[in-house]
Design a protein that fits this description.
This protein is an alpha+beta fold and about 180 residues long. Helix content is about 35%, strand content about 30%.
């Protein structure tokens, strides 16, 4: 199957069994590729697909319809920034470090939306997007760059969540100790 990969869609659910049904429905609805389908803390389920924008939109719409009553959050991001997937899979290459930005949310969808907005708004490098495993269902992302860029990226990420986001907190550390980056490099 030749699928154009310029959009992602994600559905986050509070039911594991419904999560499997939603995943199956999403895959049967449109020509999308499954990136991730699994349980996450605390007893939630996520399904992440990618493909052509129209296919992803159709797939997510079908998943939302099936997941009614169990939907935590959802997203469709057309023209996903190239750093997002490597940051989710811990394969981003961090060559230079500067200020450190951290944005923490209560859900996975909010973190991915904010991370995409951050890297599109400022010259920063994503270090990691960590989603819901061993952190009580929360998620966060980290990034580095010069102080002004990191501040702008945090602001853009938070702004993207004004209507549909569950922010816990955010910080900018202007001169972090190098040890803080050991996990990412």
């Amino acid at each position: 199957m030749n699928i154009s990969h310029n959009a992602i869609g994600l559905i986050e659910l509070s039911s594991i069994s419904i999560g499997y049904l939603v995943t199956d429905t999403m895959l049967k609805t449109a020509a999308v590729e499954l990136l991730l389908s699994r349980t996450v803390c605390p007893g939630k389920f996520i399904c992440l697909v990618w493909g052509d924008v129209a296919a992803v939109e159709a797939s997510v719409a079908a998943g939302i319809q099936i997941g009614q009553g169990y939907l935590v959050n959802d997203l469709v991001i057309p023209n996903l920034h190239e750093q997002i997937y490597p940051a989710m899979t811990a394969t981003n290459q961090i060559e230079n470090t500067g200020a450190l930005g951290v944005v923490e949310t209560f859900d996975i969808v909010s973190t991915i939306l904010a991370a995409d907005a951050s890297v599109k708004a400022a010259d920063v490098t994503l270090c990691e997007i960590r989603i819901a495993m061993a952190i009580g269902g929360k998620a966060f992302y980290t990034f580095t760059g010069d102080v002004a860029a990191v501040e702008a990226a945090v602001a853009a990420g938070l702004k993207s969540l004004e209507e549909k986001g569950l922010v816990v907190n955010s910080v900018v550390i202007p001169r972090p100790r190098p040890e803080l980056f050991q996990e990412f490099i």
